[in-house]
Amino acid sequence: MMDFKFSLAQLTVLNTSPVEIATIAAKCGYDYVSFRQIYMNLPGEPNYDLQKNKELMKETKAIFQETGLQLLDVELARIYDGVDILQYENAMVTARELGGQHILCSIWTDDKAYYTEEFAKLCDLAKQYHLTVELEYVPIAGVKNLAGAVDVLNSVQRSNAGLMVDMHHFQRAGDHIDALKKIPKDWFHFAHLCDAVAETPASEEELVRIMREERDYVGEGGIDIQGILNAMPSVPYSIELPNTKQVSRFGYGIHAKRCLETAKAYCEAHVVGRSAHDEYR
User: Fold this and answer.
1) pTM of the predicted model, to two decimals?
2) Of the candidates 21, 10, 17, which has an alpha carbon nearest to the alpha carbon of residue 67?
C-alpha cells in the first residue's frame, strides 16, 4: 500500500491563523499544512504575514516542532497586470524559515508575453530561496486550462517551475487524462485534492460559488479523481475543500478531519500513481 501524504490547505479552513490551521492539521493527523501568506486584499481578510508578526511566527514554529507537522507550500502569488513580483518575497522568506518547499502561483491576465516574463521573474526570485513555483491554472483566470499552463512552463524553461493540478479546475477546464499522462513527471510536486459535481455550471457565478463554497468530500462528487491521480506521479495531496455548509454544521476541526478521512480512504482504495521509476516524457 502506498504511503499517501496529505496537507491541509488554507481555503478548507479559510479564516484561521497560521497557529490555528497548524493546530487543526496536527490534531487531525495531516502530514503538512499549506499557508496563505500573501495578503489578497479581500473584504474581511485578516493579514497573517509571519514576517511582520514575530510572536505568531514563534508560536507556529513551536507547533511544528512539537507535532512534526511540516509546511508544504505558501500561496498565492498571483500574476496580474502591473504586478510587482518583489511583493512576494516576504512569503518566500517565511516558506524557507518554516521549511516549506513550494510557492503557489496563478495567472490573472490575458497578456501572454507579459505573464510569461513575470512568471519567469517569479521563478528566478523563488530559486534564491530554494523554492519551486507551482503554476495552478484556474478556469476563470488568464491561464485557464492544462494546455495553457504547459505552454507557460515550456516557454520559461525554469528548473524550479512546476505544475499544480486542482481536481476541480481539471474538471471544469474540460481537460483530458491522456494529456496529463504526457507531462514530464518532474513537473509535479503536489496536487489539490477535492471532489465536486461533474457538470460544469451554466453561469460563471455558480461555478465560482461551488469553487469557493461547495466542493465535496473526495469520492462523494462526480469528478474522475481516480483517473486523474493515476495519471500523475505520486505526490503529496493538499486538500483544498471549502464547503460552507459542512463548516457551519461541524466547525473547522471536524470538517478538516472528515476531509482527511475520506481522502485517505479513497486513495487507499483507488490510487496507484505513476512510479518514480517509470518514464513519462
Assistant:
1) 0.94
2) 21
Pairing of strands 102-107, 70-79: parallel
Whether a cis peptide bond, with omega within 30° of 0, leads into 104 is: no
Given strand 70-79, what is the order of strands in its sheet? 161-164, 132-136, 102-107, 70-79, 32-36, 6-9, 237-239, 191-193
**H/E element, 90:** helix 89-97
User: Which domains are delineated in the chain?
Assistant: 6-270 (3.20.20.150)
Quote the cell numbers at residue 6.
Answer: 496529505
CA–CA distance, 87 with 267 (Å, rounded to integer):
37
- Alpha-carbon distance values, 199 to 103, 172, 173, 210, 222 (Å): 30, 8, 11, 11, 8
CB 141, CB 111: distance < 8 Å: no
Amino acid at 96: R
Q: Each residue's pLDDT tens digit in the chain (281 positions)?
A: 578 999 999 999 999 999 999 999 999 999 999 999 998 877 777 889 999 999 999 999 999 999 999 999 999 999 999 999 999 999 999 999 999 999 999 999 999 999 999 999 999 999 999 999 999 999 999 999 999 999 999 999 999 999 999 999 999 999 999 999 999 999 999 999 999 999 999 999 999 999 999 999 999 999 999 999 999 999 999 999 999 999 999 999 999 999 999 999 999 999 986 654 343 33
